[in-house]
Amino acid sequence: MSLTDLKRRKKKSPQTQVSIEDFIEDANNYAFGQPSVVSQSRKKLSKGKQRGLDKHSTKIYKHATFSLTEDAIAILDQISTEAKIAKSRLIRILIYDFAAKRKNEQSAIIDLSND
């Protein structure tokens, strides 16, 4: 299983209608290297809705591939749905939480693990 399998699927939002005048004006703006008026208003709307990864943040995310059991995937799906956060973010939280524990606590968790 890779992190691409863990992506939260975004619901498609309905396309807003753009008038012909706005479309032509945006084409002219594009030709002159100016910002698009229509796409800026769309970005403002979508920024408020966006809750996933911030692609423009200073954090660098790297693709990782790893294996999980079917049970672990089911539990991850359930927790992700209940907490309403992306699975990859949940995994990062769990990693940092585990790393913050003392060595004896980590050993106890590993010893209790069925994997």
Task: Give your account of this protein's structure.
This protein folds into two domains: 17-50, no CATH class; 55-115. It is mainly alpha-helical and 115 residues long. It has five helices and no strands. The chain is elongated and about 65 Å long. It has helices spanning 20-31, 37-49, 70-83, 87-100, 103-112. It starts with 19 loop residues before the first helix and ends with a helix. Helices cover 55% and strands 0% of the residues. This is Replication protein RepA. It comes from Shewanella eurypsychrophilus.
Q: What is the strand and helix layout of this fold?
A:
Layout lengths: L19 H12 L5 H13 L20 H14 L3 H14 L2 H10 L3
Organism: Shewanella eurypsychrophilus
Protein name: Replication protein RepA
User: Helix- and strand-based class?
Assistant: mainly alpha
The shape is elongated
What are the secondary-structure elements, in order, as H or E? HHHHH
Give the low-pLDDT segments.
Answer: none
Q: Number of domains in the coordinates?
A: 2
Q: What is the average per-residue confidence, as pLDDT, rounded to a whole number? A: 78
Say how many strands there are.
0
Largest sheet: none
Residue share in helix: 40-55%
The termini sit apart by 16 Å
Number of helices: 5
Strand content: under 5%
The gyration radius over C-alpha positions equals 21 Å
Protein name: Replication protein RepA
Question: Can you summarize this structure?
Answer:
By secondary structure, the chain is mainly alpha-helical.
Name the descriptors.
single chain; 55% helix; mainly alpha; 115 residues; 5 helices
